[in-house]
Predict the structure.
Amino acid sequence: MPPGNRTSPSRRGREGRGGRGRRGPARGGPRRNEDDEDEESSDIEELAQAANALLRTQERVAELAQEARQIEDNNIEVSTKIQYIQRIVHVVKFFKNAFPHTVIIKPNGEEVLDMNQVDDDMFTIFLASFCKKKPKNNNAPTSNNGSTTANSVEMEPPRDEYYSYQHINGYWSAFSYYVKDVLGAHIPDSMRVKIKKFLAGYERKIEKMKTNGEISIESGKAPLSFGGVRFLARQAFLSPSDMTLGTTVHLFMLLCWNLLARCISVASLCFDHISWEEDCLTVVFPTHKGDKEGKNATAKHVYANPKNPVMCPILSLAIFVFTQGIRLGGNTIVFGGQARANENIFSKWLAKICKDCVVELLSVGVKAENVGTHSFRKGMATFLNGIPGGPSPISIFLRAGWSLGRVVSSYILSGLGGDNLCGRCASGLDINSRDFAMLPPHFSEDEGPIFSEVMWNEYLPGYVDFFPETFRRVVPYLVAQLSYHQPYLELTLPATHPLRNARIWKSGVLVSLRTRLRGGNIDLETSMQATGLPPHIILARELTELKGEIREMKSSLGHEVRGIPNSLKTLLDDSFDLGPSPALTRAEAREMNDALLIRVQESIANAIQQNNTSVQLNLQQRQLQQVQQNAANGVAVDERQVHLVHNWGNRLRLVPESFKFPA
């Protein structure tokens, strides 16, 4: 049968039955056989498979749609969304009071804007109402539940304290997000143009007011000085109330300061991101606000400060790790829990300290009301930029994760030395001191490991099962920090500090390990070299060593000079037998002195003559070599560059006795 005339067996069966298909034979006809029933079952199965495939396809499409929405939601950080929502609450409340017809209430009670009723001027009116800061109204009328009523807050006369341009512009960003992503509406171009003109004018207004001295030059939180950070670190380090909280916030604070990082980046830091390299701790942030894809995720170097334990981030990490107890589960965040919760804990502690220590902070040049979590990042950038001979601005920008522009960021990347210098300066080491090159306390690898694996698990529960291999490289250096600072910690920490209950402290092993500690500026026994040193520190170290050698030589020469009279007396007594002979007369002594002087002059003249001869021979050899090497260029040696000394007429002279001025 030709291919075009082929029919399926099921079709032929239906045609043979009068075309009635699955309905079976006509009334009174022959009954269906088993083959017909099998064919019908096969058709039903095919239809079921097709329906299942279609259902799976629809489910897959729904899953992909959900995944696409989740990816779209990642376009804005969760923390940014929270800030937007908080600002939109103010927007909706204002519109409800000023333009009631623009707000509608959904069946669930939610109040939303009706963008069809919002004209071009309404949002700029809202921005104008929020430009000036509102005074706190402690006597405002309250509702039945005790909360302040909206009308009493919104309609208060403002005082002459203006918000920054960035703060007002944040409301425009929140409004754009609300209209587009929440309401699914569109902002008219005319409204967009009007709002941008308002923001540009407000920015110019703020600039003029700063120039005229009407408002403060500073905007936002003020940068913290090194003295301010040292005060806060001491408050956390020696916290008498909640010492576990003090241990946590002390490490959090020093990491924010030393890493020049945002609080949320430190709060989300994992043990997998921490390792050790040469003489410093390395921390890698996979992503951050300025590099969301992690293209430039390079290591940041953190250095110890053996001279100042309160400001030493490595010691703080050691105390934190050995006082946290057993860590279980897959959460490897250093501070445990959720990153946002960790940030809030530190923020609340900082606010409380600033409230309780207003006078103390002012004594170190810090206004408590101007301190916030971002003050550490601002302060470190200011501190590094103000060090004479310190890190370059490019190195500071790269460490902070700030953008250098699309082109510059593609060609200027973090290299060796620049970030190391930033980290060493950030630790508080004095760049003008030889101690700037100090190495961290450490143990020599030639003496073998300090603990076995069993002992590690005993002193640090979870050493093998919880901590990643990269972080286990850090732990011996943490033990070295505890051992090195053990006398200081013994005298300083309160009796109820959690470190005193740690297994490694109670065992007494920290005291016994002190004999194996190494340190200093350079340790040849462990081959550990100081990294991140500018050239002048290396020269200063060599000059210090040379100064010590000169001091020793001076002391030795002084001892020898003081012994010359006795040595001369002994030499004369041994050389002359003056026992029975009469004493020398003055004339004889003068005669002996003249003879001795002549002998000394002859010896000096002979030495000078030999030196001149040697110099002349060396000069001739150099001239010959110079002529041979530079024959092609015709370069000759100038004899006048070599000065010979001549002795004649009982004096040293620069010309020979036969010298005559030219006629």
The beta strands are 103-105, 111-113, 274-277, 280-283, 300-302, 439-443, 517-520, 646-648, 651-653.
